[in-house]
Write a structure and sequence with these properties.
Strand content: 5-15%
Largest sheet: 2 strands, antiparallel
Shape: extended
Distance between the termini: 37 Å
Number of helices: 2
Radius of gyration: 16 Å
Structural class: mainly alpha
Order of helices and strands: HHEE
Helix content: 40-55%
Length: about 60
């Protein structure tokens, strides 16, 4: 059976917050002497994720680009 893939669409501000949070988590794990392999993989995925432009339509009928 295949693993279900989830896609997360974030804007540049959310991406920045996500990266800062992951780095803070990594620093906490390092201070505790724990492994950071999983967090490192997530940071790598966020940094190298492709940028995709989407068109979002609001409920009122106006659209945002």
């Amino acid at each position: 059976m295949r693993e279900k893939k989830n896609h997360l669409y974030v804007d540049s501000n959310e991406r920045s917050i996500l990266l800062h949070s992951l780095v803070a988590l990594k620093n906490q794990l390092i201070q505790q002497g724990r492994y950071t392999d999983c967090v490192d993989e997530l940071i790598f995925k966020v940094i190298h994720a492709p940028i995709k432009k989407l068109r979002v339509e609001m409920a009122g009928g106006s659209d945002v680009r």
